[in-house]
Amino acid sequence: MADNIYSVSEIVGASSVGLDDAIRGAVDRASKTLHNLDWFEVTGIRGRIEGDRRAHFQVTLKVGFRLDEPAQ
Amino acid sequence: MADNIYSVSEIVGASSVGLDDAIRGAVDRASKTLHNLDWFEVTGIRGRIEGDRRAHFQVTLKVGFRLDEPAQ
Amino acid sequence: MADNIYSVSEIVGASSVGLDDAIRGAVDRASKTLHNLDWFEVTGIRGRIEGDRRAHFQVTLKVGFRLDEPAQ
Amino acid sequence: MADNIYSVSEIVGASSVGLDDAIRGAVDRASKTLHNLDWFEVTGIRGRIEGDRRAHFQVTLKVGFRLDEPAQ
Amino acid sequence: MADNIYSVSEIVGASSVGLDDAIRGAVDRASKTLHNLDWFEVTGIRGRIEGDRRAHFQVTLKVGFRLDEPAQ
Amino acid sequence: MADNIYSVSEIVGASSVGLDDAIRGAVDRASKTLHNLDWFEVTGIRGRIEGDRRAHFQVTLKVGFRLDEPAQ
Amino acid sequence: MADNIYSVSEIVGASSVGLDDAIRGAVDRASKTLHNLDWFEVTGIRGRIEGDRRAHFQVTLKVGFRLDEPAQ
Amino acid sequence: MADNIYSVSEIVGASSVGLDDAIRGAVDRASKTLHNLDWFEVTGIRGRIEGDRRAHFQVTLKVGFRLDEPAQ
Amino acid sequence: MADNIYSVSEIVGASSVGLDDAIRGAVDRASKTLHNLDWFEVTGIRGRIEGDRRAHFQVTLKVGFRLDEPAQ
Amino acid sequence: MADNIYSVSEIVGASSVGLDDAIRGAVDRASKTLHNLDWFEVTGIRGRIEGDRRAHFQVTLKVGFRLDEPAQ
Amino acid sequence: MADNIYSVSEIVGASSVGLDDAIRGAVDRASKTLHNLDWFEVTGIRGRIEGDRRAHFQVTLKVGFRLDEPAQ
Amino acid sequence: MADNIYSVSEIVGASSVGLDDAIRGAVDRASKTLHNLDWFEVTGIRGRIEGDRRAHFQVTLKVGFRLDEPAQ
Description:
Twelve copies of one chain form a homododecamer. Chain A is an alpha+beta fold. Chain A has one helix at about 20-30, and strands spanning about 5-15, 35-50, 55-65. Chain A has a single domain, classed as Dodecin subunit-like (2-Layer Sandwich), CATH 3.30.1660. In chain A, a hairpin with a 3-residue loop joins strand 2 (about 35-50) and strand 3 (about 55-65). The longest helix of chain A has 12 residues, at about 20-30. The radius of gyration of chain A is 15 Å and the shape is elongated.
């Protein structure tokens, strides 16, 4: 178990389907620009309400990814 | 973007189906007595356990709704 | 309504299906060693990310169960 | 166990007798305008000090009450 | 010093002028429907950003108001 | 002052008499199965309301007890 | 209502009688060295356990007192 | 209302004028390197004191901005 | 950069003008009895409401000041 | 990556050497009665002071350990 | 076990050596002006970075000390 | 004292040696890609346990660095 160093990014996923879908969407989007994603932590669950009744879920995640050593 | 004023109500939705269903039920119930619902924030997730195993989800939401100006 | 005393255990459920499944799995597992389970409270939602994209949900629960009086 | 929906109100009870009395006073007052009260949670304990020494207890409670379905 | 009971409402004031103005607007609006307002507590400061640069301040307040005894 | 190690258990005491009684009941019950109890910390105060007015106090405690060295 | 300035001190009251007594003892002791005491806020409730069963309550308070202008 | 995904950056604005100015400065600076800024949340208010009396305000903000889809 | 030690005092500034003025007033008052003031942190924003509408701002600050070595 | 379930125990390690030593001591002690220890989280750092100057470190940890399936 | 009353002071220790050293330095400094020091609690760990790389640790402690009865 | 603006990054340092080493490693790694590092704040201390007993420390830091004005 090497002593890796991680960086943490915060991202908000959204979905009208549900919480799981919002989380998966955020992780999927993060994977397009960040590499070596390792873990996430949910830090907030909010949403928008449309037409007084329709809930759009917004889940805020911290996403940790392993840093490679920068080229010397 | 007008400088609207919002009021916030706290409500607990419940469901034996799951978290999404509990949230939608709470928003739906809120829409019957409050108008201009705009956003929600989940402030707690709890539940009851029945027969030692069956989980009933209870999600506490803050629900924000836009206030109209009171009639003069 | 008797003045029951409860003990609280902390458990982490995991699922690649979703949050509801992780919660149900944790309650189900708790029921195998604890009795008179009464309520739960979600205290954290985290997860592992595999292959940069696949989310494994981990939900931390406090589980309350009613204590019987110990035999004299 | 039906999937009831609850609303939550915040109220501050006060007493120069003590904490228990402040909580009971707040619940009692809430029962005069709200129905189907089910639970409370203490979210803050403060007080005023009179004449540099006499403590007046103020306990902030969230009070949950079961919502009936609104008449159609 | 009588042992008054207070109720607490949550309200979000908004202003493009600044924080003080958002707080005063929220208190002013609350005074139109609630009486015997006594104190407030700021529980959150957020805002919207328009055109990438213009900040609209949103301040969430808890507002406490003294309850009269309900008529018998 | 030896460098003792403590374990922490969470327990919920209940009483219709008041907060002090709920705390003492929880400590008393803990003492029946745990030994070398040393300290407690209140982490939550809640309650049930019966008949819209009667408060049942529930106090959540963390209880610390000194661990003996396990037999070799 | 002048714009007074307050200083805040933290003090821990203790009592084997109960929470109210611990709070009153702390306020009483504070009044011996501080003047113009105005309010308190409970920030923690802990205790010691003696002989595995007897609870000694310890209540941590922040105490606010009005500052006079220092002599010029 | 599309299910947009947001990224969140943390930034500290500073001003010797006041809180509003520190917030506006931070948003303004963020807009120079980030696009589609949508909201902010104040997570801390601190400051430096110079010459024992002059306050320099420092406001920590989380700033949310909408992510475009990365080019395929 | 020497390894200075700081002490922290808590103070509540008040103003009917606004938040900045309440903070400055508190720092100014602190400077009359404490020396080597270095930083502050806002830990709470509250206020009194007069005549149902007029807000008096109260800002709680922690103020850090550098300790000199006590004379031997 | 199987969907393991974890249980969480809270333990307080102590050391007059330092924080690292207190953490290691707590993990070491936990390993004598719990198996499959996987992670820890520090939830509090406190200490006793002896003779007005000598610090004894006390670190509170949550320790997670993987649960095996109970024998059928 | 008498029902002692404690006062709590907040102090920030600093060290370029490490966390243990910063804590010990703060306790040592506190002992020069306060007596009957009994416990401490770490409430924050921060630091300054010099030359982009060298960390100076700053640990904020609450320090509790037993109050003697003031002379009559 | 100019009114500088800072950006904040979150990073997790790891070490099998101890907490100080994990913090220094994180700051050192951050200095390879960020400039004008000014301060850090520890927001979490966790770790992995290997072979039931060997602790690997993981310290989460927020790191603040001064932003230069972007080239016009």
